[in-house]
Amino acid sequence: MFPITRLRRGRSSGSMRRMLTETRLHRDDLVLPLFFDETISSVRYAASMPGVPVYPVRDAEKVAERIHAEGINAVLLFGIPRHKDGNGSGAYARDGVVQKAIKRFGTRSDALIIADVCVCGYTGHGHCGIFSHGDVDNDPTAELCGRIAASLADAGADVVAPSGMMDGQVAAVRGALDDAGHRNTPIMAYSAKFCSSFYGPFRDIADSAPSSGGRETYQMNPANAREAMREISSDIGEGADIVMIKPAMPCLDVIHNARNRFNVPIAAYQVSGEYAMIRAAAENGWLDGRAAMTESLISMKRAGADILITYFAEEAAKEMEQ
Ligand code: PBG
User: pTM above 0.85?
Assistant: First the structure.
């Protein structure tokens, strides 16, 4: 090889490096998570998520206009309801917080509206389902997810994203959507969702931390990469149109393996704690936040993700090609 081959030749100038770039980010890759809170009348921030606003529902039109102007192609909506109860009925209420936000948002933007399907923010106990005898009851929760998904699609969601990690939830959601006449509404399944400490800041924002215990009985053990392939494979079998892997940076191996094995589109979710780490270090002057953001997103795409869900979406879109 050396001295005939000199890999540094390809790094000789900016033009050369650009021509040889293997992985490029594009605005259309990005999904921006958005939070709407029914209990507030002006924007609020959680201390652990600087730069990530939580909007009152009445701001939905204004946010939609801004997102449209920035060229963001897709958003992922989460809600903080006024009332919580045992089975998260606010998540499927016709006038639920996300249902209301979707209707307003949709009037001002044609960005794809993806709606998270879960009850952790809607239940007093903070678990992702119906809780009985110290654990989340799988099958009734999967049915509940179906009901929520149909309600969100009725409100105008373009895509639904079940995130509770119940067995059979994708099938239940597909069945409920079809029964409600939403045969063409795609499912983005949170297929390999690991039980991760990196969700901490999200739980501050969404007030969705479990009041007792953790999510170990439903979210995956971060040690298990082979099991992630089984989760993805079963979600595809149940009708998932897009599969998601989260968190992203700790799971680049899982993204890569999934890319090699499956031909479905893959979404990577750079979660709240990943965002918070980069933000915090940047605010302390410990690293270049913009460069770290871009490098982290490139790594997710290089690993094999087609779709990048990130709290940096607005900032990243400004940096990217059209
Ligand atoms: C709801 C849900 C969570 C996230 C996305 N959907 C929280 C959790 O599982 O506790 C986390 C997203 C993030 O951390 O950015 N089940």
Answer: yes
- pLDDT one-digit tens code per residue, 204-255: 999 999 988 899 999 999 999 999 999 999 999 999 999 999 999 999 999 9
DSSP 8-state class, residue 233: H
Residue of 84, 100, 246, 301 marked catalytic: 246
Ligand 1 centroid, distance to 199 Cα (angstroms): 6
Q: 3-state DSSP call for residue 28?
A: helix
Q: Which residue has the tokens 């998932």?
A: 240
Q: Which two tokens stand for residue 138?
A: 């799988």
pLDDT tens digits along 74-118: 999 999 999 999 989 999 999 999 999 999 999 999 999 999 999
C-alpha 185 – ligand 1 centre gap (Å) = 22
Whether 199 is in the pocket of ligand 1, judged by its Cβ within 6 Å, is yes
Q: CB–CB of 160/117 below 8 Å?
A: yes
**Residue whose C-alpha is closest to residue 123's, from 151, 86, 96:** 86
Tell me the DSSP string of 193-219. EB--GGGHHHHHHHT---SSS-STTTS
Question: Active-site residue among 84, 100, 193, 301?
Answer: 193
Separation of alpha carbons 33 and 39, rounded Å: 19
Kind plus residue range of the DSSP H or E element containing 269: strand 266-270
Query: Distance between CA atoms of 94 and 112, rounded to whole angstroms?
Result: 20
- List own/partner pairs for 213-217 with CB under 8 A and 24 or more apart: 213/127, 213/134, 215/127, 215/128, 215/165, 217/135, 217/136
**Integer distance in angstroms from the first to the last C-alpha of the chain?**
39
At 33-78, the pLDDT tens digits run 999 999 999 999 999 999 999 999 999 999 999 999 999 999 999 9
DSSP 221: P
- Domains for the chain: give ranges and CATH numbers: 25-214+225-319 (3.20.20.70)
| Strand bridging mode 74-80 / 112-117 | parallel
